[in-house]
Every structure is written in C-alpha cells, then in structure tokens.
C-alpha cells in the first residue's frame, strides 16, 4: 500500500499472502500512537504482476472514491473515517414491508430542475415530500454505486463498495435513507452485478494485470454490446466479493432491498442479444443458459432472504425465465418480483398507432408467465432515455390511464390510482 501518508513509497508496506486469495497488511502506528491512515487520506494498492511490474490500483473494497481534480485522470481512493460526532446517527426505524409496492424509480443527480448535479440532500428536500404526497411507498435509487463515467447512468460501475461521491458523502447518503424511512418509504438499491466497467486504473479490470481475476478470460469476459467486463461466477472469491457487496449496502446504509440490473444478460451465454423469447421452455433450459450466473442469483436470494427476512429483491429480466419468483427451496431463483418491460413497449406502440385518446380503449396484453409477481413500470428509464432524445413523458397519461384499469391476474398486484 502506498499513499500520501508515506509520500507514495510503493515498497515500504507490503501485504502478506494468506490462504484462499486473501492478503493482509498491518500498518504500525505513528510514533505518537496515532493511526497512519487518517480521514480522507489518499491511498492506492500496488500490485506486482506476473512479469514483475508494479501496478497502481484502487482497492476493490474501497468505500470512498472521489473525482480527480484534473479531468481525464483516474478516480482517487480515500479513507472514510470521520470523527464520531460527524458520523450519521440513525434516528428512524425501518417501515413495515409493503404488501403492494408502488415504486418511484429515481436518479439522485437529476432529481431537480436546476442545471447542476443534484445531491443526496437535494433529494431529501425535493423528492421525498413529493413522492410521499403522491402515494408511493418505495423508492428505487439508481447510480449509487460509484461509476467514473457519469453518462453511463450508473451502469458502468468502477467501485462497488463506494457510494457515488458526486452526490455527497457516505454520511449524507445515510441521511437520505434515514429520511426515507422516517417518511415510511422502503429504499431499494439498483445493484449492478451483471457486469463492470472496463476501466483499469480506477476499476476492477486487470486488477492483477491479467484479463481474468474477477472476470472471464478471453472473449467471454467482455459484453458484445456494452463493452464492459463480465464476472466469472464460478470463482468462489468472485461470489464472496459480490455477496459481501450486497451485505455492505444492507448493513452500512440500511437499504431495504435490491433491483438486480441486467439479469437477462446474466442468465444466457448470448446475453439475450437478438432473442425474441417466445416462451418455449427450450429457450430457458438449453445450453445457452449460464448456469454459474443462475446459481449465483439463487445463492444471493437464499442468503438475503434467510438473513434479512423483510428484504425485497427484484429481477430486471425480460426473457421470462420460469420460476424466477419461486423460492430457492422449490427450485426457483428466489426473487420477490420480476420487472416486466413489455407493458411500457405495448402501451407506447398503442399510442403511436391510434393516438393517446384512443389508445386507452385498447387492451394491453402482457406476454409473460402470469405465475410471477410482476412489476409494471409506467416510466422505465431503459425505454424512456434510449429513444434518441425523443420526448416520451407525454405518453405518461396513457400509461397511467391503462395502469389504473389493469385487473389483477394470478399473484400479481394491481396498481391503482398512482400519480
């Protein structure tokens, strides 16, 4: 380890290798007995690769990472250890788990109309009172996990354990979650375990100097459309990293659940690219299914629901994988809900064909297995922001008009009178 605490001497403090891929470093105290690493100290890990070269890296477990002072430089890892009086003190108990979720999907950075990157405190001031008044009982936060590329909308994660410093400090995020709980809102984190940024200097990519480590080696380790790295879920240390990441956000930040991003990409070797998913079982139980990824999702859900009974997990899967929302003990994947994007697409197409006024008269058929608990997003960011700049908010009235008239079928919940 090197840092500003030792004038960036790369050889002074070396880690000791332990079993099972673990490394340990015990830093001696300063002569006066104080810790060498102080609050906001800047540090880096120094990795010697297979060729003997020294590589500067950020710790995969970094909990606070900040933007560099010079545009284009790598993000910087800093020690987050404020004084006891500066640490957030939790004041609110968690609300009761909702029987019928009404989720407000949100991005902290764009939560105000001001021309700036909004903050966690802005979110508390602007968003929470409004969505409580409108009848929501849960909020889903996007782009919380640190990402160097802001335009990725938070989906090119570079530091998995660090809450984005663009919006404020870790204590301010805790304040946001605490205020949500005070207002009776469940807080869901949009967690990205389907892929990772390909950044090297401030990401997980080539952490040990190889293409593997956390990811698959060779072509299998790169997503063909997203140009990002793909986790090797068959490695025990990768599973430990991802599972501990889930536990971190539940215990450190008191989140109430997760929406797992990109589950369709995880489930299939071709990542669902070019697939129509007609619903035939051959599409779900053939050689195209990535069993390692499927097992990881089952393990994650079993661990989460056993240890945190009040948790909610949602799968962003548009393929219709059977038994996604059945318990792991029954052979399912263990999610509580599965996101159904087909509703947005169907309602939008209906509006384009016949206009807003007439579209409400048409029945929107959800082409999915009705045995799942489904989440129908009226304004999903995936469709809304990807239409090449086209304004789609005008179709909100149509979608909400239709939502209020959807009748419950199977175990799914009907969403009524949602602003």
What is the oligomer described by this structure?
A: single chain
For the record, the CATH class is Alpha Beta
Q: Approximately what portion of the residues adopt beta-strand conformation?
A: 5-15%
Number of helical segments?
Answer: 9
CATH homologous superfamily placement: Glycosidases
Enzyme class: transferase
Organism: Diaphorina citri (Asian citrus psyllid)
Pfam families: Alpha-amylase, Alpha-amylase_C, CBM_48
Domain Glycosyl hydrolase family 13 catalytic: 114-416
Description:
By secondary structure, the protein is α/β, with parallel strands linked by helices. It has a single domain, classed as TIM Barrel (Alpha-Beta Barrel), CATH 3.20.20.80. It is 23% helix and 14% strand. The chain has helices at residues 120-133, 170-182, 236-252, 263-267, 291-307, 342-354, 356-359, 381-384, 396-403; strands spanning 2-3, 16-17, 23-24, 42-48, 54-57, 65-66, 76-78, 103-107, 138-142, 145-146, 159-163, 186-191, 257-260, 312-315, 337-340, 374-376. The strands form four sheets. Strands 8-9-12-13-14-15-16 form a seven-stranded parallel sheet. Strands 1, 4, 5, 6 and 7 form a five-stranded antiparallel sheet that branches. A two-stranded antiparallel sheet has the order 2-3. Helix 1 (120-133) packs parallel to helix 2 and helix 3 (236-252) runs parallel beside helix 5 (291-307). It is globular, with a radius of gyration of 23 Å. The model is unreliable at 350-368, 384-398 and 405-419 (pLDDT under 50). Its EC number is 2.4.1.18. InterPro entries: A-amylase/branching_C, GH, GH13_cat_dom, Glyco_hydro_13_N, Ig-like_fold. It catalyses: Transfers a segment of a (1->4)-alpha-D-glucan chain to a primary hydroxy group in a similar glucan chain. GO terms for molecular function: 1,4-alpha-glucan branching enzyme activity; cation binding; hydrolase activity, hydrolyzing O-glycosyl compounds.
């Amino acid at each position: 380890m090197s840092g500003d605490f030792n004038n960036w001497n790369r050889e002074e403090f070396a880690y000791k290798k332990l079993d099972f891929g673990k490394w340990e470093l015990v830093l001696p105290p300063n002569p006066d007995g104080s810790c060498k690493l102080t609050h906001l100290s800047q540090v880096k890990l120094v990795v010697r690769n297979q060729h003997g070269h020294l590589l500067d890296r950020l710790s995969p477990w970094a909990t606070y990472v900040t933007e560099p002072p010079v545009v284009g430089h790598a993000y910087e890892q800093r020690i987050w250890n404020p004084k006891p009086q500066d640490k957030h003190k939790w004041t609110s108990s968690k609300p009761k788990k909702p029987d019928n979720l009404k989720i407000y999907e949100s991005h902290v950075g764009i939560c105000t109309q001001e021309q700036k990157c909004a903050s966690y405190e802005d979110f508390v001031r602007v968003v929470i009172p409004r969505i409580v008044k409108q009848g929501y009982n849960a909020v889903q936060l996007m782009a919380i996990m640190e990402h160097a590329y802001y335009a990725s909308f938070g989906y090119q994660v570079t530091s998995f354990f660090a809450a984005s410093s663009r919006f404020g400090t870790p204590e301010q995020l805790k304040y946001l979650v605490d205020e949500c709980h005070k207002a009776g809102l469940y807080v869901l984190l949009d967690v990205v375990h389907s892929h990772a940024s390909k950044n090297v200097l401030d990401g997980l990519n080539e952490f040990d100097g190889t293409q593997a480590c956390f990811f698959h080696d060779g072509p299998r380790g790169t997503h063909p459309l997203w140009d990002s790295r793909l986790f090797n879920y068959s490695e025990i240390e990768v599973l430990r990293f991802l599972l501990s990441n889930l536990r971190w956000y539940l215990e450190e930040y008191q989140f109430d659940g997760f929406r797992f991003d990109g589950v369709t990409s995880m489930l299939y070797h071709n990542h669902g690219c070019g697939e129509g998913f007609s619903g035939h079982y051959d599409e779900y139980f053939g050689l195209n299914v990535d069993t390692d990824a499927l097992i990881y999702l089952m393990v994650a859900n079993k661990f989460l629901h056993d240890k945190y009974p009040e948790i909610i997990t949602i799968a962003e899967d548009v393929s219709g994988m059977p038994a996604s929302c059945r318990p792991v003990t029954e052979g399912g994947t263990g999610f509580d809900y599965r996101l159904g994007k087909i509703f947005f697409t169907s309602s939008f197409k209906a509006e384009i064909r016949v206009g807003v006024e007439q579209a409400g008269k048409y029945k929107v058929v959800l082409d999915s297995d009705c045995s799942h608990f489904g989440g129908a997003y009226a304004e999903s960011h995936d469709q809304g922001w990807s239409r090449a700049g086209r304004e789609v908010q005008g179709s909100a009235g149509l979608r909400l008009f239709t939502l209020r008239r959807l009748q419950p079928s199977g175990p799914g919940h009907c969403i009524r009178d949602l602003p």
